[in-house]
Design a protein that fits this description.
Layout: E1 2-5, E2 8-11, E3 17-26, H1 42-58, E4 61-66, H2 76-86, E5 89-91, E6 93-94, H3 105-113, H4 116-129, E7 141-145, H5 153-169, E8 173-176, H6 183-192, E9 200-202, H7 211-218, E10 223-226, H8 240-252, E11 259-261, E12 266-269, H9 281-284, H10 291-302, H11 307-322
Parallel strand pairs: 3-4, 3-12, 4-5, 6-7, 7-8, 8-9, 9-10, 10-11
Antiparallel strand pairs: 1-2
Bound molecules: zinc ion.
């Protein structure tokens, strides 16, 4: 079993410590229209992302899944440069963002003219089997996303297409849930469409602090991710202390074999520099790509979580889901 990375297939047992949901570069759709003030300095961005990747390497991280949807600035050639210069394995995504924050106009228009499912299926299949655009770089995961209160009809097209592509190719699926909602529904939909639950990771589950929400999702056999660690106190992002309380409860249930950990950090924003108000700074002070290693894992050990459970969540589970 291998993971499809920028530098080619990596054997699952060599993926090592893996962060399964981060963003090397990301821009909210629309940044493409702000080129006058939101210029992209390729050399500077590359230097910064190589620096971050190098820091992760020095902290023992060997593999990162880049979860950036196609319309949010996904840039395979740029990620390949980061991977080659830093030695960090990176997996690339194929998929579109949720309806509220994605670029929906393109496919909504096409869906009005054609059979939408076939169009999305063909796109995902080609990106997984042949490569993205003319880069020859193959997507290593499919990325799905749903709205807060429903998996909308538009979003369902992507879920159904991804399940079929996974059935045919085995490619892993990762998801975005919004504000800690729709986790069980996403799992039910994907498994109902024939996806292999062992190769599905329902994301941003740490947006919800009710252990029963997690148990309800796990019932479907899928993996879940606490993948916004460090992003705290905003809409849909509870405090880490509350997340760890849920994580402890789930580990106590014996679910270490189904949980993965990450941050959802963005190393380089596309568009203009972010004008961050002072008031938001405390919420993001721990939102950086070494927070897990610096703060979370030592805290778990202090709470009596074993090194074996930590290795399970950070090494063995990613190898099984993505390998
Ligand atoms: Zn993300």
């Amino acid at each position: 079993m291998t993971a499809q990375t920028f530098t080619g297939p990596v054997p699952a047992d060599q993926m090592g410590f893996t962060l399964p949901h981060e963003h090397v570069i990301f821009g909210y759709p629309g940044y493409q229209g702000d080129v006058t003030l939101g210029t992209f300095d390729h050399a500077a961005a590359l230097d910064e992302c190589v620096r971050v990747a190098g820091t992760l390497r020095s902290r023992g991280v060997q593999t990162v899944v880049d979860a950036t949807p196609n319309e949010c600035g996904r840039n395979p050639a740029f990620l390949r440069e980061v991977s080659e210069r830093s030695g960090l394995n990176i997996l690339c995504s194929s998929g579109f963002y949720y309806e509220g924050e994605g670029a929906t106009a393109y496919f909504k228009f096409r869906f009005s003219l054609t059979d939408g499912f076939s169009e999305v299926y063909e796109m995902m299949l080609r990106e997984v089997t042949d490569g993205i655009g003319t880069t020859g770089i193959r997507a290593g995961v499919l990325k799905l996303a749903s709205s807060r209160d429903e998996i909308s009809p538009y979003e369902r097209v992507f879920f159904r297409a991804a399940a079929r592509v996974q059935r045919e190719t085995g490619v892993p699926i990762i998801t975005h849930t919004q504000e800690g909602r729709q986790g069980p529904q996403q799992a039910e939909l994907l498994v109902g469409e024939g996806a292999d639950p062992g190769r599905v990771m329902i994301g941003h589950m740490d947006g919800n602090t009710d252990p029963d929400y997690h148990r309800e999702t796990l019932k479907h056999g899928v993996n879940i991710a606490f993948d916004r660690l460090g992003l705290q106190g905003l809409v849909g992002t509870p405090m880490d202390t509350d997340r760890l309380r849920v994580l402890e409860a789930l580990l106590g249930d014996g679910h270490a074999g189904r949980i993965l950990l990450s941050h959802d950090t963005i190393w380089q924003w596309l568009g203009r520099p972010l004008p961050l108000p002072e008031a938001i700074l405390p919420a993001i002070k721990d939102w950086h790509p070494t927070h897990l290693m610096d703060d979370i894992l030592p805290e778990l050990l202090r709470r009596g979580i074993s090194q074996e459970q930590i290795d399970q969540m950070t090494v063995k589970n990613p190898a099984r889901v993505f390998g």
